[in-house]
Amino acid sequence: xxxxxxxxxxxMKGITKRFPxxxxxxxxxxxxxxxxxxxxxxxxxxxxxxxMKILAGSFNDYEGEIFIEGKPVKLHTPSxxxxxxxxxxxxxxxxxxxxxxxxxxFAGAIPGKGIFVDKKQLREKTIQSLARVKLDKTIDxxxxxxxxxxxxxxxxxLAKVLNNNPRILVMDEPTSALSSDExxxxxxxxxxxxxxxxxIIYISHHLQEVxxxxxxxxxxxxxxxxxxxxxxxxxxxxxxxxxxxxxxKEFYKPKTSHAGEKxxxxxxxxxxxxxxxxxxxxxxGEILGVVGLAGSGRTELGRCLAGADKVDYxxxxxxxxxxxxxxxxxxxxxxxAYLTENRKLEGLAxxxxxxxNILSTIIPRLxxxxxxxxxxxxxxxxELYEELNIYPNxxxxxxxxxxxxxxxxxxxxxxxxxxxxxxxxxxxTRGVDVGAKKKIHETIVKLAKEGVAVLxxxxxxxxxxxxxxxxxxxxxxxxxxxxxxxxxxxxxxxAANG
Amino acid sequence: xxxxxxxxxxxxxxxxxxxxVEENVFYEVNKDARRIKLDLFSTIVTKFxxxxxxxxxxxxxxxxxxxxxxxxxxxxxxxxxxxxxIVATGxxxxxxxxxxxxxxxxxxxxxxxxxxVEFMRYGLVYGMIAAVIxxxxxxTINGFVVGxxxxxxxxxxxxxxxxxxxxxxxxxxxxxxxPDMANEQTYKTGFFLPLMYKLDPNILxxxxxxKAAAFxxxxxxxxxxxxxxxxxxxxxxxxxYVVMSKTTFGNQLKVVGSNYNVAKMxxxxxxxxxxxxxxxxSVCAAIGGIFMTSLNQVGAFYIGQGYDFQAVTxxxxxxxxxxxxxGNMLGVFGGVxxxxxxxxxxxxIGIGTFTQKMITGAIFILVVYVNAKSLxxxxxxxx
Amino acid sequence: MTMRNIxxxxxxxxTLVISKLNNNRVYILLxxxxxxxxxxxxNFLGTGxxxxxxxxxxxxxxxxxxxxxxxxxxxxxLSVGAIINVGAAVVMGEFNRFFAIFGGEAAGIKxxxxxxxxxxxxxxxxxxxxxxxNGLLVAKGRIHSFIVTIGMLTALSGFVYTYCKGNTxxxxxxxxxxxxxxxFIKIPYLEVFTIRFLVTVLIVIFFEILLLKxxxxxxxxxxxxxxxxxxxxxxxxxRKIIWTFIFSGFTSAFGGVxxxxxxxxxxxxxxxxxxxxxxxxxxxxIIGGTELTGGRGSVVKTAIAVLxxxxxxxxxxxxxxxxxxxxxxxxxxxxxxxxxESYSLYKQNLKKGAKIALLKxxxxxxxxxxxxxx
Lengths: 498, 383, 374
Hints:
Distance between the termini of chain A: 35 Å
Radius of gyration of chain C: 24 Å
Structural class of chain C: mainly alpha
CATH architecture of the largest domain in chain A: 3-Layer(aba) Sandwich
Helix content of chain A: 25-40%
Shape of chain C: globular
Helix content of chain C: over 70%
Oligomer: heterotrimer
């Protein structure tokens, strides 16, 4: 690339965006060259997504200027952004599951004569689009989207975006649900796209991937740009430091195992199509990590143990007593609590107050004769507030008003209040800022010290390494092994990938 | 106008609770001055909405007529809405649970009224018990289908309404039944009458007159000058208040209404909770049906018609959110009372019943619109 | 490729067959009901029954057309019954008014023709206006369609009563009144071809083509299926939703207009003491396969479902089971369809997210367990 004229495809200058109560992006400059893959990194809440939404034309009230191919543009509507050449691929696929592949790809742009649809052209063009993502031989354009698996859905989404011949392509966490093979396929496609001179913005948390696919990287933090550098000029540690803002090493204190007697034994736990023949043991005071790529069955395992999903086969022995895997309430009474993966969908009712959320799991315990006496619970809520350092210190605030990190603390409090014997944590620090993450980790360690058995399901490798006493490895719904010597991220990643 | 669309859309994305990316929208970062002043007017409107409205209406009323503030007039208002109040209290539980509304209320009123009249020949109390049991059965079916099988509540309860109407009409071949009808013909139609006759043909000879009088008297009793129905309404509302806010069920219902999945994962038995909400709704409809049938002195399929739409109107006006988990009994009373006030004021002005309907509909839409806008200004979007 | 393999490849996938059957269940239902009814009710298939049956069905078919569009967009329009009444009342009332303005009986045919033309235009405009307001409140005001249409329904029923002053309105001049209902040929069965019939069928065909073959319609299906995806694709979702409500208002009003003219009577409370047209339209739309959450539906199937329900109704009347049994039957049919749909959804959700690769392992797993006696 040296010596070649560098074409700046996109230039964003002085971008600022406010929401009621927040300043999401503050005076950010960002540029991307033609034919480069430019990674955009930062913690959740750093402003990456808002910045990209601005680029996509989701807001009409941003401050600052945007230039595409040197020309100033006003990206006030999605159609303006689209016509300016911006193509967005979102993390959450915007797919209409009721409708067929071709209708999804050509939504809003169906080829036709006048007002009518030209079926033949539609089909041909769809096949052409699918070819760009190497799916033309495997998928029939008429198939309904609900019959297509996740990975292919994502590629179809990409095909949809590529259809509009974007000059700038934004990919938001495209690999979060992919296996390593599938990631490779995606990278091949990205390299093809690069050759066509398209500027690609790649948002990701995976350092590994960024180093593999990106040319330059920009780090955002708290709505501001920290730095932009060539990928070859920077190390992983430096990147993390830029994202997090403090030296990483201080983070994790050396851990000592507190494992006591066996408290939980799982035998051949099977739910057809999700997890097969899972067996492991859990000891009091131990933190057992579960590592596995997305789709390996982590969450499914947690849900089965919690009683949320029907188990087709298998036994659970809690404290030497075989228990029937009943519904969630029964498991909770027996002492098994499950902190859900997605706090917004299944974890917290955002419209309730923090106190109501925290007490929601123990309403029956605080009741007598059908009547509810929350007063006993309120004290405990206050205690948990102190322990977890939840900010702002007002239990009657609606949960939606809290930052991600504090919401997660409320979610944790909700389960801690049930005094569980076995606590299953599913992604306990996803989307959480650094300070909250630290606090949550401290709390988990303290719990283990007090004798609670913790099952830690996480995709955050440093977290697993720092907290776990042992780690079991899940791959494609099976337990394929256990690691308990010197844990490090590489080992975990290798084991998970297989 | 175009700008509004985009801002509205972004809000909707946020409300969907499926944030694709930006998680920390309402960030409160320590002392950092990142907050923006929120609209005071919007806050007032959303919290105290219904009483705001009542106050405005009261002012209107006073302007319109000196008779407005008189005790007898206000009592009239309450009387007029007492039946609605009973039924609305029940339906409020269904809305509170986040399941739209119970559109089977009208025919539940009809069928329970009819059954009450049938069983009344054994005694007034038996009639009422039979009616309530019918309500419980209907509520259980509704609750199971909506709670367990997760059929759309509006469609199902409307279908149930249809079915119940069909049952009543068919059993009576389209006729009505009067409480004091006691000839051979009477015992050839109806749900249980033929069975009663078969079990004991002497039933023809019981003293139906006094029993019928007692039944018809229900709606006509005025302890302390106030109709019995009104006492019942207040009793039902107070019971509803206690159940909704002080019981285990009520508090769990709030969680279920706020987010069904969260409630499920928190160990709450959602099916049972939803079922109970529907049972309460149908039982309230049964109570309303008993009294309404008594008022009309006839058991027929058209008793209670229109109560579903009216109840929803009253409840929404009273601040109950269609999204669930929000609202209280005071609001239910407020909403019902508001409807009564509107009708009363319009009558005092001299406007006819049907024009009143028109105006009520328009006011309703206006109120909902203003409320939705205020909620949006506050960053919430759950009309 | 042995014979066995070839047959295996040709044999259709079970789930595919079931879903194809389910998609076309209306047609199957119609045929089934026709067979049952013709067996149980004498002269069911005779022209004396079939023709009135189809004629009665025309009103809900027309109203159902627009209603299906609203439902495809993912909303409810509970005010269709009221809009039918508005259309009916306004066309009759305005005809009388303009007939008089143009000179009444003395002015002869000119007054009649102009009177009708203007009255019909006004009535249809009223339906469009109501639909527009509904659509605006739902799409731009972001108020739930359930609430908006309940309010509108209350307001409209009040309006109709006030407009009619509580009475039935009939036309002051009956010259063209029955023209809509006059059959082209007085041959049995073909008597069903009246102007009203033709107009209804044309409108149904138009809306079905719009849905199936026009870009506008396909984009609407996207909007109903995933509004956010459609919005990102650049489709003006708000405008589409508003149009669905306008269509609903238009078709309901039109239905009411033609109905009133053919009966020479606009009744202010049509459906209130009888079978509510809203119920029939709602039931038919769902039975016809339109999904409640939007994104899938067909106007023609709704129409077939209306015919099916009407067939049940007529059959029951012939069997002397009375008006009352009709209501019960309709309710039960709706309940069955709704239960079936939801139950299959329930079963589907239980399996949602299962990994295909893992599912393939299952028989092996089961066999292994049996062998080791676990």
